[in-house]
UniProtKB/TrEMBL annotation:
Gene Ontology process terms (BP): maltodextrin transmembrane transport; maltose transport
Protein name: Cyclodextrin-binding protein
Record InterPro entries: SBP
Family: Belongs to the bacterial solute-binding protein 1 family.
UniProt-annotated stretches for the region Disordered: 204-226
Matches recorded under Gene3D superfamilies: Periplasmic binding protein-like II
Biased composition (Basic and acidic residues): 215-226
Keyword annotations: Signal, Transport
Naturally occurring in which organism (per UniProt): Raoultella terrigena
One GO CC term, this protein: outer membrane-bounded periplasmic space
Entry GO MF terms: maltose binding
Length: 226
């Protein structure tokens, strides 16, 4: 149900914001690129959209990581999609190349998403998309070793240190990759880039070597060294 609602929101906001291409309006058709084997999840949303707006929705599946590259070729030829799925870290390049149009979305609908997820689709305070799915990390623990998850990274470090003294392992994490270590760095006040006056990132303000970033990286580094 959540997938259907979210997909409907993506399609509806594009139409309501008058971002559907002139070609789609003239043909009475909306072209959607969806990820491989994911189109079943938006069937109900597509059906509802077609009934509400009297517009035919054509869904084509292709790997979402390749959609932007295909858009670079198909867009100028006028055969690109009206709606597509891309990783949010490809947003900046797509906007700079003129491949995406700003998205007009009511504030109330924006607030339905977490600030971090909707913020990932803003560039210089301009919204270009909405999140379809959000990844997060989970902790898996062995109840034969601990009764419940420990309540701090320091506690995990102490546990891991004791385990290593017995030639065993404690916490295993890919802390050498910032995707996994960010959960320790961010809460300590660390950041990657600061913001400029327009709400975009300031590449001249790197926060990983600031006090918060260094504090946040200390324990992950110590755990890696164990």
């Amino acid at each position: 149900m959540k997938k259907n609602t979210l997909a409907a929101l993506i399609l509806t906001t594009l139409a309501a914001g008058q971002l559907v291409s002139l070609q789609a309006q003239a043909a009475g058709q909306l072209n959607v690129w969806e990820d491989i084997k994911k189109s079943d999840g938006i069937k109900a949303a597509v059906s509802d959209f077609e009934k509400q707006y009297d517009v035919k929705v054509s869904v084509q599946e292709m790997p979402y990581a390749q959609q932007l590259e295909k858009l670079r070729l198909d867009g100028p030829a006028g055969i690109g999609p009206d709606v597509l799925v891309i990783p949010n870290d490809q947003l900046g390049g797509a906007v700079v190349q003129g491949l995406l149009s700003p998205l007009k979305l009511e504030q109330a609908k924006q607030e339905a998403f977490t600030p971090a997820s909707i913020g990932a689709f803003r560039l210089d305070n301009v919204l270009y998309g909405v999140p379809k799915a959000v990844e997060t990390l989970v902790l898996i623990y062995n109840k034969d070793l601990i009764d419940k998850p420990l309540d701090s990274l320091q506690a995990w470090y102490d546990f891991s240190k004791a385990q290593r003294a017995q030639n065993k392992y404690g916490l295993l994490a890919k802390f050498d990759q910032i995707y996994y270590s960010w959960g320790a760095i961010g809460p300590m006040g660390g950041y990657i880039f600061g913001k400029n006056a327009n709400g975009g990132f300031n590449p001249q303000d790197v926060g990983l070597n600031k006090p918060g970033g260094r504090r946040g990286g200390d324990l992950p580094e110590k755990i890696l060294q164990r």
